[in-house]
Amino acid sequence: MADAQVPFWERATGPLRRQAARFPFERAILMGLAAVVGLYGGLAAGLFATAIRFVQLVVFGGAEVASSLFGSGRVAWLRLFRTRLGAAHWHLEFVALAALLLIAAAVLDAVGAKRLPMFEVHRIRAVALVAALGLSLYYPLLLLRTFNGTFRESSGGLYAMLLEAPRWTWVLGPAAGALLAALIVRLSPESGGHGVVEVIEAVHKRAPIKGRVALWKSLAAGLVIGSGGSAGREGPVVHLGGAVASSLSRFLALPRSETSILLGAGAGAGIAASFQAPLAGSLFALEIVLADFDVRRFAPVVLACVTAVATSRALLGGGNELRPVAWSLKHPSEIAVYLLLGVVAGLCGLVYIRAIHAAEERLGRVPLRPELRATIGGLLVGFVGLLAPRVLGTGIETINAALAGKLVFGALVLALGCKLIATSFTLGSGSPGGSFFPAVFIGAMLGGAFGQLAHAALPGIASSPGAYAAVGMGAVVAGATLAPLTGVVMMFELTGSYQIILPLLVACGVAAAVVQGMLGGSIYTIGARKRGVQISRGGAALSDLSVAQALDPVLPLPADLPYEDLVRIVGPTHHAAFPVMEGTALAGIVSVREIRQALLNPAVDRTAIARSFAHHAETLLPDDDLGTAVQRLSQAGVAEAVVVDAEGKPVGVVTREGILETWRRATLPG
User: For 32-55, how does the pLDDT look when each residue is reduced to its tens digit (9 = 90+)?
Assistant: First the structure.
């Protein structure tokens, strides 16, 4: 009879509500957010590439732009613009999908609260709204890309534009771009830097990435690269992807472990969209940013990278900007030649890392205003461009020429040396930009030159110089980043040749081993160390746990506590240590083990107070990770530390034994 009194609808939906209570919302939201982060990563790559092209048009093709927009060619340009808009791929399915997401968000808000937990309803609705906004951003980007496509110079790349531009623009263009970027950095000091290191810092130090900083960095880097500065466009895109992930994580109050996964996914999405290489982007996130191949992180990262590439291709068109390379093994002994290329590429990567960091250190000490320093760096880049204009900008056209074997040996060597110098001037003078793509350029030049020498010395064994250029790209990247798998997979995806995997594995592995053995760090890990970030590739479990999880909450002792009272407290306690307070200030920490040992010493001063037994206290925050805690304890040579809140008030202690027990419980099966 009791069941008969329950309405039929409630009896029918009861099992559904019970299932909803057991549904893994956290994992589902993480996957949804990974797709959203990938969407924004693809949009960021498209926006950045389009913005760079716009700056190139203004700086090096300003005469044509002015004539088309304001001169006699205005009518013809408007007609061409309308024609191009009509022929553009508008992807109306994006509108439909955005509308469906908005409808779903409204329905979920109205009905879902009665069937699902309210907290999860708000989070799911927020994900849907953010995804709808991202889809709608496709259309203004399409307008800007169509605008760029109406000008003749845009189809030939920067090098073709440079050949038709006045020589003075080669020098003043990079200087003007660097000056404008420096003014932006002055307004937003955190917008300087490479981009990737900042995301690594956010992952390993739990520091949030501010969205407005990423936008300022993208604008500044777009001005630098578009005006001819020698830097990579992947850095700001990675930073933008990380900023979206960080903002969403804070807004939705995600756990720290999932926040780090999303940050890695955002970084991988930026690389994947920049190079149209989803596998390489995934490995970049796992191998470089997260420094962890935990299978739990794999699915969100891959989903973000695939979504980013799909979005980027919808905006920029299918395929990547690098030409495919055909390769076949002419003779088994050629593997030894590629092994030698790996050694040379490793040494080149070593020189590249040291040159960039040395330039940053030495130019950073020059007693000039940052704006003037950046302008002088831009001028120096322009003068280098007068000698080798191929090194200005990203140099994609020159990489394609090396892959096609169209550059002579002297041109390859000149471009290699000048690119190294120009990149050092650009990044060393404080201009924002990535350091990944310049390594790709240098590797292509090195591999192409090495291939020509190998082909001349061993014509019956060595393959075409273009294949060596492709392998050189991967090897220098592997050496500079200490990420051989990323180098291998990226070149495999960019060249479209499975056969080239064999020489890539040999060269990339050797290059990474050379740099690791001689330097002990990559261009990213060395930069991270300068920012106080220690990346542990073998202790991922500790880095995923927080100090709060190992916290022993004990009340502090007053510094003037008499010896008898101290012994009365310490004798029966199960705590390992106590903070000692001098009024409202932390005076130190007393170890229970040391106090108990003092009881056995007949010479101990029984008139002493707690301050006499205290020693200097290392302090940690509750949201520090346990990897950092172990490192701090080891460096200080102590076994306990005081945990303080944001205001500096003690909330407890953490010990080595407590850290070990927390790690043991976290790694228990099941």
Answer: 888 888 988 888 888 888 888 889
User: What is the rounded CA–CA span in Å between residue 22 and residue 18?
Assistant: 7
Measured in whole angstroms, the distance separating CA 140 from the mean position of its chain's CA atoms is 26
Domain-located, residue 333: no
Looking at 479, 502, 530, which one is the last position of a domain? 530
What confidence score (pLDDT) does residue 15 get? 54
With 0-12 / 13-18 / 19 or more C-beta atoms within 10 angstroms meaning exposed / middle / buried, residue 454 is buried
DSSP for residue 109: I
Note whether residue 599 is domain-resident.
Answer: yes
Instruction: Compute the distance between CA of residue 511 and CA of residue 352 in angstroms, rounded to an integer.
Output: 13
Of 492, 512, 530, the last residue of a domain is 530
* CATH number of the domain encompassing residue 369: 1.10.3080.10
Better-predicted residue by pLDDT, 120 or 539: 120
> Cα dihedral angle (38, 43, 47, 50), rounded to 10 degrees?
100
Per-position DSSP letters for 282-331, written without gaps between them: HHHIIIIIS----HHHHHHHHHHHHHHHHHHHHHH-SS-SSPP-----S-
- Give the tens place of pLDDT for each residue, 544-580: 788 888 899 998 989 888 888 888 888 888 888 899 9
Strands 640-644 and 619-620: parallel
Strand partners, 558: 581
The count of domains in the chain is 3
426 found inside a domain? yes
> Closest Cα partner for 357 from 478, 444, 480, 446?
480
- Separation CA 661–CA 24 (nearest Å): 28
> 260 lies in which domain range?
24-316
- Nearest C-alpha neighbor of 346 from the set 211, 532, 189, 478: 478
Rounded CA separation 345/466 (Å): 16
